[in-house]
Amino acid sequence: MKILAYKTEDVINQSTQKWAKIWFKSALISQNQFEKIEAICQHPLHTPNVYIRILMFVLTIIASIFSMAVFSPFFLGFISEIEYVFMFFGFALSAICYFGLNHIIQNKKQYQAGVDDAILYIGISAFVFAMCMLLSKNTLDINQNILIFVGFVFPILVLASIRYIDKLCATLAYFLIMYAVFLIHVNYLAYGTYYLPFSSMICAALVYFGVKKCENLQQLQIWKIHFLCIKVIALIHFYLSGNYFIVRTLSETLLNVSLAPNQDISLAFFFYAFSFFVPVLYLFYAFFKRDVILLKTGVELTP
Description:
By secondary structure, the protein is an all-alpha fold. Among the domains are: about 45 residues; about 110 residues, no CATH class. About 75% of the residues lie in helices and about 0% in strands. The chain has twelve helices and no strands. The longest helix has 27 residues. The radius of gyration is 23 Å and the shape is flat.
């Protein structure tokens, strides 16, 4: 099975045509140049405008809800326990969505058209729901169940983001793995709560520089928008991990302590300095490297 559901050449040509249209409307290229790009970068993919995409997304969700309402009673006749009905129905629906999505991609050439997005999210949601029902049947504590849940769902989100070139799945995968890091520090590591901000900074930095390296690889250019989203999230995550007010609030919540207005947390000076200097460093590095993402992020985070 191919990792990518689409032909790489078709995705590249579609992206080239999309940007050419934007450049033409902005008067950056002439009509002759635009027509030449359209003639060279032919592709069979169907991608409607954003309004049609939203409409098709909503209609597909509504149609799926009605379909589930019609067929779900049939499962009640074969399985007596309602939990197992929901579990089986969730896994079955996710499998149907997977094969249905591949069918419309291969035969209808749908690409970010609303219908394919809806089917992808319905399939993942059904799998997540079925996993929750399955984990609710065991005797593990809730934190262990969450980590098991992350272990199953995180690879699904990563594979979906890669195979179907979906930005939302990539974003959710980032949040999910960082939530797992948070749970491990709070519940399983000795003094993990105390050094959670520093571990969170390290994780964000590793992801940022890892993505920064990957986005320069020619064979990964079709996922460039994924890398852009993850970089922005990692930059914001890094800043928030050391922001004084967030660290103070989390310290009071996780350590069950109440600080008076004139009291400070440990290493308060470091977190004050971090909150001020990190956006400044973003701006400085953005001008030095001519990085638009760093520049915009730094401007938004500057106090």
